[in-house]
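Course assignment 3, question 2. Fill in each field.
Student: A.L.
Task: Predict the tertiary structure for the chain below.
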Amino acid sequence: MLQKGVKNIVFDKYFLKRDNILKRRMEIDSSLYEKLQELSNVYEASINKLVNAAIIEKLETNNVNLYDRAEGEILESHNFNIR
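Answer field:
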């Protein structure tokens, strides 16, 4: 059990504190989800973490890239935990 007022500097160094998480079900292109799966194998990050990083980057830079959906592209529903 942790004592009241004790700083956990070691834990703060290695772990992120829990944030308020919003659970959302979103429809995204199947090709985008496949790219996220590939990236999760390249980086030490889950698909949820990659999505959160993209949201944070968008909020900080206000840079939005729009693209046309390929004809016949399938939308898939996925659950995401958004910070």
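Instructor remarks: The mean pLDDT is 85. The first strand starts at residue 22 and ends at 29.
Grade: pending
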